[in-house]
Write a structure and sequence with these properties.
Layout (H helix, E strand, L loop, with lengths): L27 E6 L2 E6 L5 E6 L6 E4 L5 E6 L4 E6 L6 E5 L7 E4 L5 E5 L5 E6 L4 E2 L4 E3 L5 E4 L8 E3 L5 E8 L2 E8 L4 E7 L5 E6 L5 E6 L6 E5 L4 E5 L8 E6 L5 E6 L3 E6 L5 E6 L10 E7 L1 H32 L7 H13 L6 H24 L14 H10 L16 H12 L4 E6 L21 E6 L5 E6 L5 E6 L4 E7 L6 E4 L6 E4 L4 E6 L2 E6 L13
Parallel strand pairs: 7-12, 26-31
Antiparallel strand pairs: 1-2, 2-3, 4-5, 5-6, 6-7, 8-9, 9-10, 10-13, 11-12, 14-15, 15-16, 16-17, 18-19, 19-20, 20-21, 22-23, 23-24, 24-25, 26-27, 28-29, 29-30, 30-31, 32-33, 33-34, 34-35
């Protein structure tokens, strides 16, 4: 696997699920760095445009036809739109005092939808009827339609896959409704009440035949309706407990996967809307035939990595020593060798030392730094420590110059405080993120590390929070949020668990290869993890401190 150089990008940890770096046609790559927008060729990574926006970019989104980019800037309540091919053309949408909480493209790439703060309304803006005082600057001030009472900003507003319809979750008279709009004239063609107490999302099936809606965590209720509003089914697995956490259609639309807070994933079929599979995330894993892959450190590579890390630390200490000595010389002091350090310590004991308290403290810290460097050098097997003698002459000569040197205050901040055990553990954990590792097959039964969610915090880290179908629907990958260091792969042909990947760090994100059954995993480390039916592998990402948090094919 080949890697490009690291590209500047910001806010990747908070990236929206609808935010895409690659253009839909795969020709371009866009990235944001605070208020700058970078547009590159996808294959050569050559920069085509660098655009400076008016404020920090909150959301970046490609138009479906890959010709324009939408940059939402929530702090200023504006949306700026730029063209890839015409560098002179721009458009600005200003929501004014109503505020801006969300923005997205319509499927025709010529309309933009913005939602105000507090979900007061969603406005449809047309780029075709925008006002233009010249050919290079356009402002869209005449909306073509309004959608009243939208309940959610992103999950409650979904376009059908054919681009002809828009489903919006609305809240009217303390009840939940779904309105279906036609994108040609933006007229409402369907409006029906749904059987949820507090709907939090709507999702079209891939064939656009059905619309799935689900309630908040306080109820387990998934309702499916036809595009015309006919009620197909209401699925409730249990009551009086935290309910649905995520919903995902299979690529063909034949199955619907529901992840819930009871640490299980359930799969429904669209023929009779019955549960055909229930996967329980339990520990330890006892099922025969399940392959448990455990990430472990590669000891051979780890030794080389530790040696390189020690050399880097030693070089950093030597750099600090040289910088401190330069500051001391510039302040009128002098640099001492080991013999002079002993004499200085003897003078301090007898009260005959004439240096200032600041310089005495500095020399003490400098001596500590040298001791640390010597210790690191001894550990690395290298006894050639460049102590950094500055100036000519022997120790006695330097001693004589020291007695007549002008004493000036020296302000140098050197952190030599001992690190606490908790901080040391955190440093070790961070260091492990960059150390080479590999997968080993663990024997069954195998225990999975789990955490206890905080009882006093909302939205507990509990239950199946991430579900991904493979492109051919043969596999289903899940993550149980209270077992955050494990990824479960289910074989939907056998309706059984296939593999479990036990990581050393949190499984932040994973995504299937669109062309084959290959799962890519990001675990907040400098490595990529790959699973396929043939096995698992670990790929080190070059670039030093590059940490993988999100993935996108």
């Amino acid at each position: 696997m080949d890697f490009s150089e690291a590209l500047p990008c910001s806010n990747t940890a908070k990236q929206s699920s609808k935010e895409r770096w690659f253009s839909p046609d795969g020709r371009f790559l866009a990235s944001k760095d605070k208020y700058r927008l970078y547009i590159r060729e996808a294959f050569s990574l050559e920069i085509i445009q660098v655009i400076t926006c008016l404020d920090m970019i909150s959301l970046l989104q490609w138009s479906p036809d890959s010709t324009m980019l939408l940059c939402a800037q929530n702090k200023r309540n504006i949306v700026q739109i730029f063209s890839v091919h015409d560098t002179e053309w721009t458009c600005k949408i200003d929501e004014g005092l109503a505020g801006l909480s969300h923005a997205c493209w319509a499927p025709d790439s010529r309309h933009v939808l913005t939602t105000t703060d507090f979900q007061l309304r969603t406005t449809v803006w047309s780029l075709l009827t925008a006002n233009s005082s010249n050919t290079s600057s356009t402002s869209s001030n005449n909306p073509v339609g309004y959608i009243q009472f939208p309940k959610q900003t992103s999950s409650g507003l979904q376009f059908s896959h054919n681009g002809r319809y828009l489903a919006v979750v609305e809240r009217r008279n303390f009840k939940d409704f779904v309105s279906v709009y036609c994108t040609e004239g933006w007229e409402r063609i369907q409006h029906f009440e749904i059987d949820t107490e507090d709907c939090v999302g709507v999702l079209w099936s891939p064939d656009d035949r059905y619309v799935a809606v689900w309630g908040s965590m306080l109820e387990y209720r998934v309702c499916v309706y036809s595009a015309y509003g006919s009620h197909m089914t209401t699925f409730t697995a249990y009551e009086h407990a935290l309910g649905v956490k995520c919903v995902e259609w299979s690529p063909s639309g034949r199955f619907l996967a529901v992840g819930s807070y009871d640490e299980s994933v359930r799969v429904l079929n669209v023929i009779n809307w019955q549960v055909i599979f229930e996967g329980v995330h339990s520990t330890p894993v006892k099922t025969d035939g399940v392959v448990v892959y455990t990430e472990e450190q590669d000891n051979a590579s780890l030794a080389k990595h530790a040696e390189a890390e020690l050399e880097r630390k030693h070089a950093s200490l030597q750099k600090d020593i040289f910088a401190a000595e330069e500051k001391l010389l510039s302040a009128g002091g002098s640099v001492l060798d080991e013999e002079d350090d002993l004499l200085l310590e003897e003078d301090s004991k007898h009260g005959t030392d004439k240096c200032s308290e600041e310089e005495a403290e500095f020399r003490k810290q400098l001596s500590s730094l040298k001791a640390m460097a010597s210790q690191d050098t001894a550990s690395a097997g290298n006894t050639d420590v460049a102590g950094g003698e500055r100036g000519g002459g022997g120790g006695k000569g330097r001693r004589g110059r020291r007695e007549h040197a002008t004493r000036l205050p020296v302000s140098v901040s050197l952190n030599t405080t001992a690190v606490s055990e908790s901080n040391q553990a955190a440093e070790d954990d961070d260091r492990m993120r960059f150390c080479p590792s590999r997968y080993a097959i663990d024997s069954v039964p195998s225990a999975i590390a789990s955490t206890t969610p905080a009882a006093d915090k909302p939205e507990p880290k509990l239950g199946v929070g991430l579900v991904r179908w493979s492109p051919d629907e043969n596999f289903l990958a899940t993550r149980n949020d209270n077992m955050p260091k494990a990824v479960w792969v289910w074989d939907m042909r056998r309706l059984a668990l296939s593999s479990v990947l036990k990581q050393q760090h949190l499984a932040r994100d994973f995504a299937w290869d669109p062309s084959r059954n290959r799962l890519l995993l990001a675990a907040n480390t400098a490595k990529l993890y790959m699973w396929s039916p043939e096995g698992c592998s670990v790929v080190d990402v070059p670039g030093g401190d590059f940490v993988v948090r999100k993935l996108q094919w």
